[in-house]
Amino acid sequence: MLAPFHFDNSFARELEGLYVPWAPTPAPAPRLLLLNLALAEELGLDAAALQGAAGAALLGGTRVPDGAAPLAQAYAGHQFGGFSPQLGDGRALLLGEVIDRHGRRRDIAFKGSGRTPFARGGDGQAALGPVLREYLMGEAMHALAVPTTRALAVVATGAPVFRERELPGAVLTRVAASHLRVGSFEFFAARGQRDALRRLAEYAIARHDPDLADREDRFLGWLEAVARRQARLVAQWMNLGFIHGVMNTDNMTISGETIDYGPCAFLEAYDPATVFSSIDHDGRYAFGNQPGIARWNLARLAEALLPLLADEAEAAVALARPVVDAFPAWFDEAWRAGQRVKLGLAGAQPGDAALADDWLALLQEQQVDFTLAWRALADFADGDDAPLQALVVDRAALQDWTARWRARLVAEGAPPHVRAAAMRRASPWVIPRNHRVEAALAAAVDGGDLGPFEHLLAVLRRPYEAQPGEEAFTEPAARELTARYRTFCGT
Ligand code: AMP
Ligand code: MG
């Protein structure tokens, strides 16, 4: 018998008592719809054993793969600011971990594999549309060089899922650096389970920040390491126009990977107030709020870790506060550095932040498409100003800003084509446009046709390259459509 996965299950082994061993619900008629061969290769899996009916059985929960130790993880979370003491893997299971070809430990997990003890009122299932969406967005983010969980496979279960209407059910196999979230720590902290909290934190440090393991102040050092990773991650989101949509603390990893692609979407016309999520009525998770929310979430992590930082609460707070307070500066550093690359600046000068801010203000005033504008700026650096001119109505305002920008470029050494190439490596030619994503999902779910999905996915695998013939994928949606566009949590 072939063993596609060589599991080494440190979570199950080392954290007994902190999870619930649980088996997936077998899919009645599993059918393998997607298998990510490049990822399977990276993970060192036997891809042949994951193909066809055998693969569908293994990746649809019908047959638990050899060596797996499936379990449901416990976690809590602040959702839209309010605390839920018990969320957990309601419809997800960690199967186990594998060591990939680069020596990195990666979680293999199911989503949509049936109810668990954490399911509360939920049915434990996932509908095909949201599963495909998570697959597509995760792979697109990976291609954009953003840290993210990834998708290994999608299996149609053959069981119907009942939402507003009956939908086909599916299981996503998700790969992650780990599934530890801010909410994982909140869970044990809220119950006053200090020992469990400590075990979990020691585990997280050993897994994600082993350099800290021997330090006396490792928990504080680790809080800082998590904060710095999140600062870099959210800076990348902000420089690409990505809106996560539901930055609850249970949807924020401590690995620094983007996780849980429910209502996420990319900006079109630049506006920091942009919200697409149908349940985000107050705009808590609006595009421009994301850095502040990341900091808020890290403050919740800091609170959860207080019992590990010092015996006296006051002393613990005094240690944690500077880390949380430093977050905006760490974010700014990463965000501004990314902006400079997009502006074609290799060096840093005092006026650069104002130059970037005024560019963004111009885009907002003129309602310019964020992605197209940055890419057109690279064309401008290359000597072609027509694409940018075509995007902006107020030519005088544009002229004022580009004059300043060109004056700033004089201090830069690189020849124009080298500068433009560097800019294009930071500003994508193509992103997952909302209307394109919806069309691909509709074809798959309503028409049973994965063709458009595969086509879109193929284009999104090379986002920084111009792909002649695929220009249609770069076009924004009609403005009315974007104004009406709503996304939904993957439930
Ligand atoms: P999410 O919105 O996917 O981040 O999930 C929030 C919480 O709800 C997590 O604890 C999930 O496990 C749980 N959950 C979401 N959908 C379902 C479902 N259909 N069945 C059981 N639990 C669910
Ligand atoms: Mg979640």
Description:
The strands form four sheets. Strands 2, 6, 7, 8, 9 and 10 form a six-stranded antiparallel β-sheet that branches. A two-stranded antiparallel sheet has the order 1-3. It folds into three domains: 170 residues, no CATH class; 158 residues, no CATH class; 147 residues, no CATH class. The model has no long low-confidence stretch (mean pLDDT 97). It has 491 residues and is α+β, with helices and mostly antiparallel strands. It contains 17 helices and twelve strands. It binds adenosine monophosphate and magnesium ion.
Please outline the helices and strands.
Blueprint: H1 10-14, E1 19-21, E2 31-35, H2 37-42, H3 52-59, E3 71-73, E4 77-79, E5 82-84, E6 92-99, E7 105-111, E8 126-127, H4 128-143, E9 150-162, E10 166-176, H5 182-190, H6 194-208, H7 218-240, E11 242-243, E12 265-266, H8 290-309, H9 313-343, H10 352-365, H11 370-381, H12 386-391, H13 395-409, H14 416-424, H15 434-447, H16 451-460, H17 479-484
Antiparallel strand pairs: 1-3, 2-9, 4-5, 6-7, 7-10, 8-10, 9-10, 11-12
The structure holds adenosine monophosphate and magnesium ion.
Magnesium ion (MG) is lined by residues 250-251, 260.
